[in-house]
Write a structure and sequence with these properties.
Number of strands: 28
Number of helices: 17
Distance between the termini: 40 Å
Structural class: alpha+beta
Shape: globular
């Protein structure tokens, strides 16, 4: 089996951005979000519930030395990169998510150890992390629902503390979030169980050591055995304490678990096999693919919302991941795709609406200020790919969410606070009406079709753009004016025709415009406000407008799509800790890179992929349905970026489009590339 893990840099995106200086078109874009990827090198499995990561208390994942930030270069807290220990359940790549996990902090120490210590010799591979604190070699891996720790003390007198009271970050001047009603109980000599109310739900912990455990307050302790090697298994369950205890009481072998984790990651990464003459591209590709497969987390069987069954959460948030990350999962992983579909439907059936994000928290409407009905964009994507979803159940849940109390501004008053919410709902109504028509449900089609036709109400017919009388989340009217819509010919006609639509896009992407200056001071928001007035593409620093480059295709200018995409991939993704251009947001940006490398862009909710500018020689994708998609590119260079023609199973594609259904049937896609 090919060793795909060897190409992965687990640390990619965990630090401040360190990208090539942008030139040409890329120098005209404006970064809105902070200049850091916010990933962590947590030991985890693909989509695993459990993870274990070095813990500094830094923003936002608990790893690193950043203070809270939302724009410019991140400020750093005085303690630097020194660790407090090793924690569990990290978010991945997020910004201000509002709940942070970082539970059960494990700290190997001596009696005179400082509270914080700088890690030395940090190394990691998929499923494994290693570092040295003083003379203590610290190792982490994961097996199933259990995180495994191993600490080899170089001197006598070592001990390990497990702090069950930690919830969140340890930012100077800010109190940690509250853990309520914490209760610890010893079970025999070497097992401790704990329960607490955290983020509104009951969380159970269990930990088993290879030495006798004592309990004091909110912590458990044990001394290193005579050989100096302390081992610990930790499990966390939102279901009950019995489940957590069952996980840790199974026999574990750390080295065998590490090898198994590596093999599991190799299998997952191997669903997409690429060939390229550029070793750096291979590292960047598989590092991004890795970070696209960390979240969401599969907590199946341990739901705290409904009964047993699939339960996939850490959807933080759908606003970030519905465009490319979830389509990537649906393309390649049937098991998780089906679990995610069932989770979304059961959440809607249980809560009466579809959350816009979901974590280990009872704040089900937490992300309602970002977008609307994105769970159905995901479900419709899965349906169009060929997942066995019942149209009747889909439409029943759609109407349940659509007529939810929180959406009456649209359904009853015909307006929304944000035009983006309005478009989210009109577009998904059109897609749902199409589905109802296919399913023979004329009543539902008649109900929804008029709502879908409202989309023109929020456009300014004089400018051809969204009108200014709206709030816009993480952007301006420009960032949201170029999404792919169900009726793109009508959208382009509203803008004044193809030529004018292209001119609007050209202005947005900075053709013929002066270079921009990126904000650098995290304490001065002024440059951000000035930059937003430019109405410019945010590059690949944020998800707001990542679909916009592909709107050129509808106006007959796929060459422009190629120029924008290749400029972004060249200047905004690289290897190493600074290799991501912004918050990775649970795999949103990294999955975009993966799709761009393959030359494919999925249009969320639609039976459609658009063609980009691939930059791998070939790819072999194992599709979720057991079939295979092969991609072959005749020339790969910084000059040959334009797609002269693309053939699928020997037939030339028209309009640089292919239906999702055709693509998922498998076959071979051949790109002929060239200079303009």
């Amino acid at each position: 089996m090919t060793d795909f893990c060897k190409y992965v840099n687990v640390f990619q995106g965990s630090g401040e951005i360190d990208l090539p200086k942008p030139e040409g078109l890329a120098a005209r874009w404006f970064f809105l979000k902070a200049g850091c990827g916010n990933t962590s090198p947590a030991a985890c499995l693909p989509f695993s519930a459990m993870s274990a990561s070095p813990f500094s208390g830094g923003y936002p994942t608990g790893y690193g030395d950043h203070l809270p930030n939302s724009f410019a270069r991140p400020a750093r807290f005085p303690e630097g990169k020194a660790l407090l220990g090793f924690a569990h359940l990290q978010q991945s790549g997020t910004g201000a998510i509002g709940f942070y996990y970082n539970y059960a902090v494990v700290t190997p120490r001596y009696a005179d150890s400082a509270e914080r210590r700088i890690p030395a010799d940090e190394t990691a591979e998929p499923g494994y992390y290693r570092a040295r604190l003083e003379d203590i070699v610290c190792e982490l891996t994961v097996s199933g629902r259990t995180a495994l720790h191993r600490y080899a003390f170089g001197s006598k007198g070592g001990s390990v503390r497990i702090d069950f009271s930690n919830n969140g970050l340890n930012i100077p001047g800010r109190e940690r979030k509250t853990v309520r009603n914490l209760r610890l109980e010893k079970i025999g000599d070497t097992v401790v169980a704990a329960e607490a109310e955290i983020e509104g739900i009951r969380i159970s912990f269990a930990a088993r050591a290879n030495a006798p455990i004592t309990v004091d307050g909110g912590c458990a302790y044990f001394d290193a055995p005579e050989n100096g090697v302390a081992e610990l298994a930790v499990s966390i369950s939102p279901k009950d304490g019995r489940t957590a205890r069952e996980h840790v009481q199974r026999p574990y072998d750390f080295d065998a678990a590490r090898r198994a984790a590596y093999e599991i990651w190799n299998k997952e990464l191997g669903r997409i096999e690429i060939e390229t003459d550029d070793a750096r591209v291979k590292e960047i590709f598989y590092s991004n693919l890795y970070h696209s497969l960390v979240k969401p987390a599969d907590w199946s069987g341990e739901s705290f919302v409904y009964g047993d069954g699939p339960f996939v959460i850490d959807l933080a948030t759908l606003w970030d991941i519905y465009k490319t990350q979830l389509p990537l999962i649906y393309m390649t992983n049937r098991e998780l795709g089906e679990k995610l579909n069932e989770t979304l439907l059961r959440l809607c059936e249980t809560l009466g609406f579809m959350p816009n994000g979901m974590g280990l928290s009872d704040r089900f409407r937490m992300f309602s200020d970002q977008a609307r009905m994105l769970g159905f964009y995901a479900l419709f994507t899965a349906y169009r790919y060929g997942y066995p979803l019942d149209p009747k159940r889909l439409l029943e849940n759609f109407k349940r969410d659509f007529f939810d109390e929180g959406k009456k501004d649209f359904t009853e008053q015909g307006r929304c606070a944000s035009h983006t919410f309005f478009l989210d709902m009109t577009e998904i109504c059109t897609l749902a009406a199409d589905l109802a028509k296919e399913a023979g449900d004329a009543q539902t089609e008649a109900l929804l079709r008029p709502f879908g036709a409202r989309w023109k109400n929020v456009y300014d017919k004089n400018t051809g753009l969204l009108d200014a009388d709206s709030s816009y989340y993480e952007g301006t009217l420009y960032n949201y004016s170029f999404r792919q819509m169900a009726d793109m010919p009508a959208r382009i006609a509203l803008a004044g025709g193809k030529e004018r639509f292209v001119r609007l896009l050209d202005d947005f992407f900075g053709y013929g415009k002066p270079e921009t200056t990126q904000p650098t001071d995290p304490h001065d928001y002024g440059p951000v406000e000035e930059g937003m007035k430019l109405g410019r593409f945010e590059g690949f620093n944020n998800e707001s407008d990542t679909e916009a480059p592909f709107s050129y295709i509808y106006a007959g200018r796929q060459d422009r799509t190629c120029e924008v995409v290749r400029a972004g991939m060249k200047y905004m993704f690289t290897a190493g800790r600074g290799g991501l251009p912004g918050n990775n947001d649970s795999g949103a940006l990294s999955s975009y890179y993966v799709m761009m490398a393959l030359g494919l862009f999925p249009v969320a909710g639609q039976d459609l992929f658009l063609i980009g500018s691939p930059f791998v020689k070939s790819a072999k994708i194992s599709l979720f349905n057991g079939r295979t998609l092969e991609i072959a590119v005749d020339k790969v260079s910084d000059e040959d970026i334009y797609v002269k023609s693309v053939r699928f199973n020997g037939k030339e594609l028209e309009g640089y489009k292919i239906s999702a259904g055709a693509l998922m049937a498998g076959g071979k896609m051949e790109f002929e590339m060239g200079k303009f």
